[in-house]
Amino acid sequence: MLFILGFRPGLSPLIFTQNYDLMTCGEIRWELNDYIDRELTPEEMHMVTTHLTACVICAEQLLLNRAQLIHIRRQLGRIQMPAHLEAEIFTTLSRAHR
Ligand SMILES: [Zn+2]
């Protein structure tokens, strides 16, 4: 039997951080991809890490998101952009920034 800090059946586990902010599982899910890419502030990274060390549900979701991101990025790496399309995009972007 697993015991999760603050876990109550039917409710999201709640975690108290050092700043006594609450982060729900829903809030953590929004941050997971940025957490994987380390695009959060150091304080946000700490808050998510604290939640993940106590919440098995979100920790499993982290593993799923990471596997999906790796898969998607591998697939994207195989897609070749036509040379003319790349040129058109750069032309459009340069016009937009004038
Ligand atoms: Zn959670």
Describe it.
This protein has 98 residues and is mainly alpha-helical. The protein has one domain (15-96). Helices cover 62% and strands 4% of the residues. It is built from four helices and two strands, in the order ββαααα. Strands 1-2 form a two-stranded antiparallel ribbon. Helix 1 runs parallel beside helix 3 and helix 2 (42-54) packs across helix 3. The longest helix has 22 residues, at 56-77. The chain is elongated, with a radius of gyration of 19 Å. Mean pLDDT is 80; it is low at 1-20. Zinc ion binds at residues 13, 25, 28, 51, 55, 57-58.
List the main descriptive attributes of the protein structure presented here.
2 strands; two-stranded antiparallel sheet; 98 residues; mainly alpha; binds zinc ion
Radius of gyration: 19 Å
Can you give the helix content as a percent range?
A: 55-70%
Report the biggest beta sheet as strand number plus sense, adding barrel if it closes.
2 strands, antiparallel
| Estimated structural class | mainly alpha
Side-by-side strand order of the widest sheet: 1-2
Coarse morphology: elongated
Which ions, cofactors or small ligands are bound in this entry?
zinc ion
Q: What percent of residues are in strands?
A: under 5%
User: Quaternary status of these chains?
Assistant: single chain
Task: Report how far apart the termini are.
Answer: 62 Å
Element string (H = helix, E = strand): EEHHHH
Number of domains: 1
Low-confidence stretches: 1-20
Number of strands: 2
Provide mean pLDDT, rounded.
80
Number of helices: 4
